[in-house]
Structures
1.
Amino acid sequence: MDFFKVVSIEEALCMMNEKFSDMRVESETCHIRESLGRILSQDIVSAEDVPGFDRSTVDGYAIKSEDSHGASESIPSFLDMKGSVNMGEAADGEVKSGDAVYVPTGGMLPQGADCVIMIEYVEKLDEKTIAVHRPTSHLENVMRRGDDIKSAEVILKKGTRMEPAHIGVLAALGVSSVNVLKKLDFYIISTGDEVIDLDEDMEYGKVRDINGYALEALIKKMGGEVRGRSIVKDDFELLKEEVSKGIDSADIILMSGGSSVGSRDFTSDVINSFGGEGVFVHGISIKPGKPTIVGKASGKAVIGLPGHPVSSIFVFKSIVEEFARRLTGEIRNEEFVQAKMDANVHSSPGKRTYQMVKIGQYEGRTIAEPQFGKSGMISLLSRAGGYIVMDKNTEGVEKGETVRVYRI
Amino acid sequence: MDFFKVVSIEEALCMMNEKFSDMRVESETCHIRESLGRILSQDIVSAEDVPGFDRSTVDGYAIKSEDSHGASESIPSFLDMKGSVNMGEAADGEVKSGDAVYVPTGGMLPQGADCVIMIEYVEKLDEKTIAVHRPTSHLENVMRRGDDIKSAEVILKKGTRMEPAHIGVLAALGVSSVNVLKKLDFYIISTGDEVIDLDEDMEYGKVRDINGYALEALIKKMGGEVRGRSIVKDDFELLKEEVSKGIDSADIILMSGGSSVGSRDFTSDVINSFGGEGVFVHGISIKPGKPTIVGKASGKAVIGLPGHPVSSIFVFKSIVEEFARRLTGEIRNEEFVQAKMDANVHSSPGKRTYQMVKIGQYEGRTIAEPQFGKSGMISLLSRAGGYIVMDKNTEGVEKGETVRVYRI
């Protein structure tokens, strides 16, 4: 039994940052088609102007704007038709005073012209002459070269998680591959004599490995890679062997199970047996999730999560995901749904408290219904659509209060 | 030029539902490890009780509760130690009046016992006797068989999109594979004489294919499959050939480009040339995105999106994604971030108006800054983190108003 100090989530994350300040996430190159959800490892700087040429934003005639000045319905300006620009082709020739060249939407503005008058304001008198019924100003209906994006401009910042719109931006710039951070590698170990895998027969006294599968999905969803997953009995040598495998193949090893004090010591002993830093976080003031430990073994991060599935999910979201985010430097907007609580919920004094909620709609409002149940209960996971977080300095949330609901 | 009626988004979706009422999304079986993000095609019914046996929720002694009645610090109850239950093993023997059996957290409650008294309230007198210092009530510290989930209970509903917590629930139930809907197959065609692909050399007058890449990422993100992607010049026969390929390999064909009236007619002609229903939506009252067409060709859905990247993303979110959702029957909680607008934005009367915004933080509040720019502008996509939707019956959003920001 240990008597180490329980630290806050923020303290734990700071200690992790410090202990793993030498941990570097390498980068690799990938095609933009494969980049969805990946994190940029460097700024994207435009090598091209977009558009690459002055282009018309309407169907109309490219002219010199001064030729239209004073034009009206009653006194039009008459201009000479000098051909047309085809889509996707360079405009040849030059527009001189008194000339007009037809340009389709997106077409290139010919040399000499400084605006495009929309076809709606033009009357075609014959094959060679048009009448312009309205004045047009300098640069009207023109998107100039580089108006959208200028060459050498930083377009996407390092740390951006690639979304569909970003991929569109890269395509526009002619960028086909980007440098992204390698996916963080994880190794998952579920411990406990009672834990059996899906393909094993159920016997009295046994329970299925829930955390292994839930953690694997959480890791995939956050963009990590699972290098291995195993179930180990409560045996020092067997557990040490599995942790060794994890150290060899992954950056972060997650061990779950053993929520009792004795079992926690056991996990600590294994982490400490690798030499070096060993366990440096011996409990976190989070509810549920207190019996969480964090250590460094052979340079790798080893995190001991609680055995209860609900607790282990909360610790994953608050510690593992957040640690990964700091490692990768991901630029991130917190995503949540705002909802009104439909019942009072008490928090635990001095602890950051997590509460599962179900999101519902009531009279046009989004509401959050707290879902109660022992932290070992699985059905909580199927009922709840998200969770709320209560700070250690608050006493809870009252019915009617607006809360932020985070998705699992 | 066509003079067909422009319909509302809701009307367009209703028409699509009706025209494609014969479209069925098939289901397939997948392992729960591969099920993240997939949509359940049938209810999941528990075949097991969870837990599968009465279990202790604490480290303590299984006893008959009446043996502890009246027990106190000064007058304890004395009970006979009758061994212990090992984790993961069935409890043998029966607890009779006057007996106590040690049970660890999660261990199986032995026959005859109806509660567990925590070790904190027990004193071990010798190897054979314990003193109980507190009364314990019936079922205290016990989770009964099926307390969490009962056999034959519906645990996850058809239409659920699988999240990590759901995968944990299935593992708990011993379910290793599930029936999910097949991914919807898409085929993407970008049209236009000016459009070139990433590996082509840039020339004056050309533009990169942006929509092809952005749409591919949007489809992947929503859980669809892209069967093919191509760029086609404005040529009836070439376009018809590509649409044929799309019809052969996909459920939904997306054509983008040709935002001008003439080009739209051209796309319509190709869709109509396959016989059958042809084009039945000839424009949607959405801004930007009006020149959207929808048709049915050889039983498949063909959707003509605007060429401007920003418009085409909005039409994808409002029409394509929503159509897919209705086809699959996905149970969904709308996800958005609530923010305060930091500027006035006007909507277009009679149209559902979409406005790109940037999400920021100001004095502890989440704010939405509208991002303006011609709809053809790419930089909008890199600046904006999401968008707001203004209903056709509103005049816009005022500064300070709370809005829902959706992610692209």
2.
Amino acid sequence: MTKKLDATVFHNGFLNSFDFVLTDCDGVLWNRNEAIPGAKETINALQDMGKTVIFVTNNSSKSRYEYHRKCEVLGFKSSVDRIFPTSYCVAVYLKSIDFKKKVYVLGSSGIAGELHSAGIPFLPVGPDPMPETEYWYNWVAKELKLDSEVGAVVVGFDQHVSYPKLVKTVSYLKDPNCVYIATNIDEQFQTDLKHLVIPGTGAFIRAVEAVSGRTPIVLGKPAKFLYDCIKYQYPDLDPSKGIIIGDRLSTDILLGRSTGLRTLLVLTGVSDLNEVERCSNSNCENKQMMVPDYYLPSLADLGRLMGVIQ
Amino acid sequence: MTKKLDATVFHNGFLNSFDFVLTDCDGVLWNRNEAIPGAKETINALQDMGKTVIFVTNNSSKSRYEYHRKCEVLGFKSSVDRIFPTSYCVAVYLKSIDFKKKVYVLGSSGIAGELHSAGIPFLPVGPDPMPETEYWYNWVAKELKLDSEVGAVVVGFDQHVSYPKLVKTVSYLKDPNCVYIATNIDEQFQTDLKHLVIPGTGAFIRAVEAVSGRTPIVLGKPAKFLYDCIKYQYPDLDPSKGIIIGDRLSTDILLGRSTGLRTLLVLTGVSDLNEVERCSNSNCENKQMMVPDYYLPSLADLGRLMGVIQ
């Protein structure tokens, strides 16, 4: 059962129970471009007391450097080598399989930036729209060229998704040797816009699957690749001395539970206590694996227990 | 078991066994803008001998009037009221539920044309691209407006599919009272372009489902609504006196079998005899329902049996 991380739990050796922290970003540290109140004081205090804080996010829209800059702007202490967005994991994965060809990216500049840093060639990202012609099929047949050097397709979030991009994605995937990578399979972004639903990468993955029949290698949470990336760079991390802080049961908490980390849910993002209760009461093993050890309304509450926030 | 429609079958009263013909279009009558050789002679001869020939297509990209014009250009005798594209079925469906609000269309001018003809208000179709801004979310939050009078979403084929269109589609569908219609769920278009795979409406449907959790009312084959539209306009049609000619087992033949029509597969489009054999040998009842009564290499072969083609 989930416990509130209250003063009793806290004073019963909570802080000494871990050496390192994986913290999700969206919904935990910030929402969009605004820091969540108290998050930076808490994260910075954990680092000041010697905890290794590692930033993990399924969001592929920025590179490590861009996230580092965002941390600086919003006041979170960080270093580039402690930031693990899925954009970076794409480059790590391709290096790990000694990939030598070109990458086609249905995604944005975050992925492009990481591929560039890793010296992996890729086709340009950005808008690739359908022209306004009466005969779309003729245009596709005549103008839409594939690059024979492409050997991998990466699907991440792409606000410029278009029909030509979809055609290219599924056409490259016709070749069963073409590597197919998804940064994550989150169907929606969290939003406080009451009237709008904001589709995520998972929507593109499902469209591509319907056409190509292909299932991607998923790098982001709850898949373990992201955690493997971290362990590769920090081989001494012992899961029994770690905790993950997240806002989403199906990604953060599930990854934590399945890798043996302790798990802390904060309620400043996607999941709420009703969802925790549904998972607790479910007979499904996968749902049971989404139940966190602890929860708190916000990271600020941890800061208050630590005495760094009034 | 499927039989080849050979001279023995033909002379055993084949032509007298039906009064009306439903014929699929793409892959049976034409491919893109070229008539399949012999198709027009055969179709026209069937009409000359008094058969009612009805054109049925899942393709929503043209209105009835536009298909009529295409028939004229390619030499097929037709009349507007015997042409049933899913674009037209959208309008019929909305009339059948006495729909009074506005329609949001993720689709093209074929649907718009039919809604216009039926006097049903709809939001404009065509490109609705994402601008090139660093802050896509802020743009979406600020600029993307919903129309509160929308009460139905139609998803058909849209070569201008874009992120703003996806956001609008799934956001309208947040309202459980918003009617959700799919013209069809075909994942791919048939193509003879060896290197390209051409995604169909089914890809968009799967993306929308992943985000919204909504399942559409499907109008196109193999769903029966298209057939119901025809029966509504031609109430005297007796399925035991009808045949459907198609190129796709999973749409044309399945619809024919499930409505009690005879079924004739032509091999000028999507399905081949290997697929027929796999369906015949399958234990799955749904696959068994895709096995046609007859097959022919092409409509021209029927014309030859009829003596209208050398």
